[in-house]
Fold:
Amino acid sequence: MTSVTRALDSFFSGFGIPAYPEGGAPTEPGPPYITVQIVTPRWDAPMAFYARVWYRAAYLTEIAAKVDEIAAAIGEGVSIPTETGVVWIHKGDSFAQRQEMAGDPTLQCVYLSMILQAFTD
Structure:
């Protein structure tokens, strides 16, 4: 596990629901949880990445509150210290986008578009 991966895990695990690498969420017990695309950018170039927030509910109230919480934590940009430097996360141009889940109206998903820059080894 690289320092960037540990920083992403630390940040996204801090919202009161589990966070998993994209594609690594367990089927049981199911949502709510966050999945995070694991990327390792070059130190000298920002890189686009995403996370998805998942809830099972009839209404968007809970997932919208969690997305607002994550947005507030990122603010204008958030730095996450690592053992050898810092990881910086910014919101992307279209930060939060709701994704429709065909065939399951209670499965809610919001795609979060972000930019990552890592000043670390």
